[in-house]
């Protein structure tokens, strides 16, 4: 409840009105990030990127659990953002279902998509290692700004061939790095999501490994060397509290270098953070 | 090494395409798909539902999955969707879009598309209400054009002021709706929000409720008050309208009078179902 200041020149009911009207919120603001649950191509260990594969059954369970954790924590989203990819969209649906917030406005934006994997989209990760060597693949996966080979205009994975992106122009040859992903995630966050937070709305973003890496790099001031290797486990809600200046209020339960905290069993979360690193090991 | 700089997406290159309408596409048809939500758990329990937010029953989920398949088979690809703030319609919307592979399209949720509010009959069993008030009175409340059921006041859990999803709108102290008042909020919403999308050549889907869709088709098909009351729109059956460039309905030869739109699916089964809804208070 904000304090009511009285001025002698105001109408008698002005203070009462002020108390009744919701003031512009001063924080702390709550931002919930959640990486989509395990997808079918995660299971098949393929480079996914913008390929629109569904959640695996395990992934569905993960995100239902995520929704339950949010509910137990007493977090009720007011507005939600997600990508154009069904694994994130459905992750969000389950979270909304569990928290009883099916009715909130949801905005779907390509800017929150996973990083596009160019010509590696659809390829098996281990076979790609066999073909190009572990080091090269590690560079493509975990470099900040070295791109994988591009998808060409005739590739089914080129966005020009996908109706989702019909109103956008893409280069003939298209690929992304974590850097270029950040270049489209952050402006979107600043222009669309920050205003909602400043309005006092609890925002949930259901997105992807790299689009969330981009976001936490910005939120937590993580450097370019560290961020590519930071693993955000699937289907675990990551909660940030921000002050009135949109700076993160570090959580005591944070797992460095993040300053937000994961919900759920902390040991299990730590184990899962390690697990993502092992996808190209044989 | 593998990718040229031009393959990387810089935000300045990602410009929106201008919409170009080919010269030969002079008379554009606009497609509007209406779907009434599938059977809900309270339909099953034969209760007056109104704005109570019950989920689809398992059968309802099957119905709307089937509806989605029919929309897909008809070659209809919604570009934008509208639904109510009630999860049985929101879920219906999602399931249909999922079958069409279009879960990524923008979905707008609006209270103006909600089912008609049933005042203080919400939550009551339909048959018990007949036993209590008599068949005629209940028939009036259910099927009168403008006689509303008794209102709820703000002490009732069914008053929208007690539900955060309606926080942005002022509702009268005593609240109830008739088909007339439902139309009074559905049609302006349709004109202001949905028609502009149709005019932009967007195929629009509306997933809503028995009475909000009655309001809409009354308006679309110029149906009189006496007839609209008797008109039953079966659950989970897509109803497709084509409009010309002046937003006039192009009557479909398969339209089941008084409707000029076409139901998708087995026409005999649909006719049988249209009869079925009448029997809920016999």
TrEMBL record, chain A:
Source superkingdom: Eukaryota
Binding site for substrate: 35-42, 48-49, 87, 114-117, 125, 141-142, 209-210
Gene3D superfamilies (alphabetical): Phosphoglycerate mutase-like
Enzyme Commission number(s) from the entry: 5.4.2.11
GO biological process, one term: glycolytic process
Keyword terms, alphabetized: Glycolysis, Isomerase
MF-aspect GO terms: phosphoglycerate mutase activity
The reaction(s) this protein catalyses: (2R)-2-phosphoglycerate = (2R)-3-phosphoglycerate
Active site: 36, 114
Marked site positions, Transition state stabilizer: 208
Protein family according to the UniProt entry: Belongs to the phosphoglycerate mutase family. BPG-dependent PGAM subfamily.
Name of the protein: Phosphoglycerate mutase
From TrEMBL, chain B:
Lineage, highest ranks first: Eukaryota, Sar, Stramenopiles, Ochrophyta, Bacillariophyta
Xref: InterPro entries: His_Pase_superF_clade-1, His_PPase_superfam, PG/BPGM_mutase_AS, Phosphogly_mut1
Entry EC number(s): 5.4.2.11
NCBIfam families per record: pgm_1 (TIGR01258), PRK14115.1 (NF010713)
Any one of the GO BP annotations: glycolytic process
Active site, per annotation: 37, 115
Catalysed transformations (reactions): (2R)-2-phosphoglycerate = (2R)-3-phosphoglycerate
Annotated positions for site Transition state stabilizer: 209
Keyword line: Glycolysis, Isomerase
GO molecular function, one term: phosphoglycerate mutase activity
Residue numbers binding substrate: 36-43, 49-50, 88, 115-118, 126, 142-143, 210-211
Protein name: Phosphoglycerate mutase
PANTHER family hit by this protein: PHOSPHOGLYCERATE MUTASE (PTHR11931)
